[in-house]
Design goal:
The chain is mainly alpha-helical. The protein contains 1 helix and no strands.
């Protein structure tokens, strides 16, 4: 009976840790996607400005 309680406790602890890790990973993925979108937008904006500057010099 005592061994069963240990097994249940360990499994519960592992599930809780796994849930916390997966939650953290999900938030990291969301933050990474937001950062990626911002970088793409900034690249397009700066690339557009560079193209306009390059055409106006001709």
């Amino acid at each position: 009976m005592r061994a069963l309680l240990w097994v249940v406790g360990v499994v519960a602890g592992v599930l809780i840790l796994l849930g916390l890790i997966l939650e953290a990973v999900r938030w990291l993925i969301i933050i990474g996607l937001i950062a990626l979108v911002i970088v793409i937008i900034l690249g397009v904006v700066k690339g557009g400005k560079a193209a306009v500057r390059h055409q106006s010099r001709r």
